[in-house]
């Protein structure tokens, strides 16, 4: 009998604790359930040769910009050799999202001549 009461108390505690967690810490819905924006960014360079280092540095800069905006669970992926896919959960207007990311700064790559440094 005492063992049965212990199990009953444990189950009641587990249910109460689960309800507490659901009320105070709601689920963070992702892009598929809550909606959001998916932007495909294409890097364009005059000579059309974008190397991996340039792509990685652009990805790092964009990742910092998105993280500074406070967007939770954003996803930035490389697509091919010159495209990045940015997913922003909760952002319903893709045009506004692209304006926010684009207006932070102008990102240009220029080669430096060897005699200037």
UniProtKB/TrEMBL annotation:
<dbReference type="InterPro" id="IPR022646">
    <property type="entry name" value="SecD/SecF_CS"/>
</dbReference>
<dbReference type="GO" id="GO:0015031">
    <property type="term" value="P:protein transport"/>
</dbReference>
<dbReference type="Pfam" id="PF07549">
    <property type="entry name" value="Sec_GG"/>
</dbReference>
<feature type="transmembrane region" description="Helical">
    <location>
        <begin position="7"/>
        <end position="27"/>
    </location>
</feature>
<dbReference type="GO" id="GO:0005886">
    <property type="term" value="C:plasma membrane"/>
</dbReference>
<dbReference type="InterPro" id="IPR048631">
    <property type="entry name" value="SecD_1st"/>
</dbReference>
<keyword id="KW-0813">Transport</keyword>
<keyword id="KW-1003">Cell membrane</keyword>
<protein>
    <recommendedName>
        <fullName>Protein translocase subunit SecDF P1 domain-containing protein</fullName>
    </recommendedName>
</protein>
<keyword id="KW-0811">Translocation</keyword>
<feature type="domain" description="Protein translocase subunit SecDF P1">
    <location>
        <begin position="56"/>
        <end position="112"/>
    </location>
</feature>
<keyword id="KW-0653">Protein transport</keyword>
<keyword id="KW-0812">Transmembrane</keyword>
<dbReference type="InterPro" id="IPR022813">
    <property type="entry name" value="SecD/SecF_arch_bac"/>
</dbReference>
<dbReference type="Pfam" id="PF21760">
    <property type="entry name" value="SecD_1st"/>
</dbReference>
<keyword id="KW-0472">Membrane</keyword>
<keyword id="KW-1133">Transmembrane helix</keyword>
């Amino acid at each position: 009998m005492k063992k049965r009461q212990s199990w009953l108390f444990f189950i009641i505690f587990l249910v109460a604790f689960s309800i507490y967690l659901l009320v105070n810490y709601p689920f963070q819905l992702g892009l598929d359930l809550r909606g959001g924006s998916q932007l495909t960014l294409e890097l364009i360079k005059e000579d059309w040769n974008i190397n991996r280092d340039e792509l990685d540095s652009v990805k790092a800069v964009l990742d910092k910009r998105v993280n500074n905006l406070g967007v939770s669970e954003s996803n930035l992926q490389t697509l091919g050799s010159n495209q990045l896919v940015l997913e922003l959960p909760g952002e319903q207007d893709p045009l506004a999202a692209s304006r926010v990311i684009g207006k932070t700064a102008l990102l240009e790559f220029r080669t430096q001549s060897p005699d200037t440094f």
